[in-house]
Design brief:
Blueprint (H helix, E strand, L loop, with lengths): L4 E7 L5 H16 L3 E10 L8 H8 L8 E8 L2 H12 L3 E5 L5 H10 L5 H8 L5 E6 L6 E4 L1
Parallel strand pairs: 1-2, 1-4, 2-3, 4-5
Antiparallel strand pairs: 5-6
Helix pairs in contact: 3-5
C-alpha cells in the first residue's frame, strides 16, 4: 500500500499572478511527492458577497497545473485563515502551500486593519498539527522558490 501525501493549496479567484504561481508550484510539489492528493481551496468571503463556483475554478486552473489532477473545493467564511485551518484539519493535510506575503510591513498592517488580509502562513504554523508542513512560495523570484515555515 502506498502512502498518499495530501497537499492543500488555498488560492484567490479569479487567479492573481501570485495565486497562479503558487498553484503551479504546488503542482510541481505534487509530482515530487507522488502519489499525492492535491486539493485546491478557495474561500468565498461572506462579507464580500463572493459566490464563486467550484466548476468555474476547476476550468480556470487546469492549464496552470500542467496535467496534475486536483480536486477543487469552495468554502464560505468570514476569516480566510480559519477556513483554511478547518479544511486542512478535515482532510488531514500533510502539506499546506501558501503564497508568501510580499507587501511592505506598513501596508500589510493597514490592509489587515481595513480588510481581511491575514498572515496566513504564521497562523497555520501556530494552529496546525506538528506533523503538518507549511510551505511558503516566494513568487517574486524568477523561478518560484518554496520554503518551510
Amino acid at each position: 500500500m502506498t502512502n498518499l501525501t495530501t497537499i492543500l493549496v488555498p488560492i484567490r479567484y479569479p487567479l492573481t499572478d501570485q495565486s497562479a504561481r503558487t498553484l503551479a508550484t504546488a503542482g510541481r510539489l505534487a509530482h515530487d511527492y507522488a502519489p499525492a492528493d492535491l486539493r485546491v481551496l478557495h474561500v468565498n468571503l461572506y462579507q464580500t458577497g463572493d459566490k464563486t463556483q467550484t466548476a468555474e475554478i476547476t476550468r480556470s486552473i487546469s492549464s496552470t497545473l500542467d496535467g496534475v489532477e486536483a480536486s477543487v473545493t469552495t468554502r464560505q467564511g468570514f476569516l480566510v485563515e480559519e477556513v483554511i485551518l478547518e479544511e486542512a484539519t478535515q482532510i488531514n493535510a500533510d502539506i499546506i502551500v501558501v503564497g508568501a506575503n510580499q507587501q511592505p510591513t506598513w501596508r500589510r498592517l493597514l490592509r489587515r486593519l481595513l480588510q481581511n488580509d491575514p498572515e496566513i502562513s504564521s497562523f497555520l504554523h501556530d494552529h496546525t498539527a506538528t506533523d503538518t508542513e507549511i510551505m511558503e512560495v516566494d513568487v517574486t523570484a524568477e523561478t518560484p522558490t518554496i520554503e518551510p515555515v
